[in-house]
Amino acid sequence: MSAYYEELLETLQERLGEAVVAPRVAFGELTFETPPAKLLDTCRVLRDDDAFACAQLIDLCGVDYAEYGEQPWTGPRYAVVYHLLSIRHNHRIRLKCFIDGEPPRIDSVIDIWNSANWFEREAFDLFGILFEGHPDLRRILTDYGFVGHPFRKDFPLSGNVEMRYDPERQRVVYEPVTVEPRVNQPRIIRHDNRYLDPASEERGDA
């Protein structure tokens, strides 16, 4: 951890205390988790405190941890990740908040960063995460009649419904999907002359 981020983390823990969970530096950004109940207070501090000055929410995304990694996932299934930028200090902070339940619910941060509007709609559309307090939470990428949330790990690859134009009704109709589920076979790498490196062949390495 760089000296700059060590100082930033110390300041973060002084200001927020127990709201700072599992801090670490990854990809040149300070990352930490916070409980859902402390989300709004934490975000306001990150925006308003001069030490952080994260005036810009540059992205917000959902994560589905079902079937995560090689070991069974034991924590909450979903997370919302906030990517924050301080133009004044030229640093980035990544905030992660784990949530569970069906549907998963979390407070909207649109009153703190107005740019959260479409980001939260996208996370709702793709993951089914409900953002409490959002003024216009509706789908933004999928169609009006779309069933389910396509970025969830348990969403079928072929989808749930398909659409077509019905000439008799003269409109688009939705029907149960007719594509049979299938599992693609992995590509086989064959070690023959098609994959030999000409340079190594000249050296006699092959």
Beta percentage is: 25-35%
Query: Main beta sheet, described?
Result: 5 strands, mixed
**In total, how many beta strands?**
9
Instruction: Note the run of SSEs as H and E.
Output: HEEHEEEEHEEEH
Number of helices: 4
Into which percent range does the helicity of residues fall? 10-25%
What structural category characterises the helix and strand content?
A: alpha/beta
Which value, in Å, is the CA radius of gyration?
A: 23 Å
Q: N- to C-terminal separation? A: 44 Å
Mean pLDDT: 87
Question: What low-confidence regions span 5 or more consecutive residues with pLDDT below 50?
Answer: none
The global form is globular
> Strand order of the main beta sheet, please?
1-2-5-4-3
What's the multimeric state?
Answer: single chain
Describe this structure in words.
With 206 residues, this protein is of the alpha/beta class. The chain contains 4 helices and 9 strands. The strands form 3 sheets. A 5-stranded mixed sheet has the order 1-2-5-4-3. Strands 6-7 form a two-stranded parallel sheet. Strand 8 (161-166) and strand 9 form a beta hairpin. The radius of gyration is 23 Å and the shape is globular.
Summarize the structure.
The chain has about 210 residues and is an alpha/beta fold.
Note the topology.
Layout: H1 3-16, E1 21-26, E2 29-33, H2 39-48, E3 56-64, E4 78-86, E5 91-99, E6 105-107, H3 116-127, E7 130-132, E8 161-166, E9 171-176, H4 198-203
Parallel strand pairs: 2-5, 6-7
Antiparallel strand pairs: 1-2, 3-4, 4-5, 8-9
